[in-house]
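Subject: Protein record for review, amino acid sequence with backbone structure tokens
How to read it: Take the token row as a discrete description of the fold.
Enclosed: The protein record, placed directly beneath this head.
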Amino acid sequence: MEAPLTLRQSRHLEAAERTADRWWRDAVIYQVYVRSFADGNGDGVGDLLGIRTRLPYLHSLGVDALWITPFYESPMADGGYDVADYRAVDPSFGTLGDIDALVREAHALGLRVIVDIVPNHTSDRHAWFREALAAEPGSAARDRYMFRPGRGTDGELPPNDWESVFGGAAWTRERPDSGEWYLHLFAPEQPDLNWHNAEVRAEFLDILTFWLRLGVDGFRVDVAHGMFKDPALADIGRSGQIALLGSEALPYFDRDEVHEVYREWRALLDSFDGDRIGVAEAWVPSAERLARYLRGDELHQAFNFHYLSADFEAGALREVVDATVAGLAPVDAPATWVLSNHDVTRHVTRYGGGALGLARARAAALLMLALPGSAYIYQGDELGLPEVTDLPDEVLQDPQWERSGHTERGRDGCRVPIPWGGQEPPFGFGAPGSSDTWLPMPASWRDLTVEAQAGDPDSTLSLYRRALRLRRELAALGDRTTLRWLDAPEGCLVFARGTGFVCAVNTSDAAVRLPAYGDVLLASGPVDVEDGALVLAAATAVWCSVPHP
């Protein structure tokens, strides 16, 4: 007769069953920025071979899936988000054989693989755009993109006042003597596609099918709120339009027509076995608008940028959590929680930097991982990496740097390669003997490497590993367990999940006394129990196991 399951084994089995069935609803997904994760061939640039060699690390960390940024053939005007061929791997990252092997090896470790898809625009080196430039105005080749005649006597002025997200006008004249302009809401090397064109829609369905057949488990949709533009090309009438993104309606973002496309994509995803998913990168004004992307016949998840941009302050965080949960409830979609990504300043630095920023970041990690839904970890979050704010001007590569006239330093500071081990840069990022990395690494990171933190029980890496293990084991942190707020002093958040779990977070700058909810499972910083009360240090979070009555 077999021995009965222990409580821990039973909870682990329940968690495994949850993951197998609609795994994405409470998955922890790790973002891999390809160029900066691991370098397998020693050229200073991260690649698919490098990711393959580090899959055991991700498995031991305890995540459920990895999301890989674009590895497609690209001239790299925007770090790979300018795609020249959606069915080919850029030689700097490897080959189709490498991505095929990566998917298979990840699956063997129980990791799912999500890849980026970039539907709003292509590279200006894409075969379609080269064909469009060679064709006459009004041709079928040009109709795949947003070519329009300019204003003014000879078409010397752009068609309207739309601005690029990267700065400057969103229109480029195809050549000085032409009256035709093309739209690029990002860099000029990224011309926008015309999604009213049936050929464009059919092409992307075929691209998705190509990668689904290779075995990927889903797609993160870049600029999912884009694609369709106001056909009237109406002027906005003001500058600084990027500041409106995610807060006000714009004539080129979040238009209703995009949902027809996502219904087509969902039908395709559902036609494949294995719960394949779509994840929207959608900057929209409200949780209600975001929920439209997550209706039952559209995408599965959408990034929660309102949470990412919230201050480390109890009231602000609770407001976003409540709005998120309420906004998604009508469509029964899981929330997502994220603290950093490849487009924003790392949250250790956003939260104040130094020891204070790290303490807040550790507390924010426990808060995020205790909330209902799915969580995203940006590579290096688990190491407590700060933003690199002192990169030399000459190494900056983000198009924002040039497009802003060297007034905006761009996103390179959060894209510096990951430190793996050793005492000097490049900290094991590349093959043995390699010394250069595409962005320089600070020597001060010697204490933040994976190697340095792995054996330290108090390190941020150890904190993440314990939190992810507990998240899998605790039934209270499952998909369908709701959140219930508990009374808390000013500056604190306290909530229960299920009947046996409480998370408390002190966002204030002084210690607070709280009820002793139960046994302390995990804490991000100093916690004491005095006279039956829980004393929680400033910028600290704690998970407690509440005894059953």
Observations:
- Residues 483-545 form a domain with the Immunoglobulin-like fold (CATH 2.60.40.1180).
- The longest strand covers residues 112-117.
- Residues 1-20 have pLDDT under 50 and may be disordered.
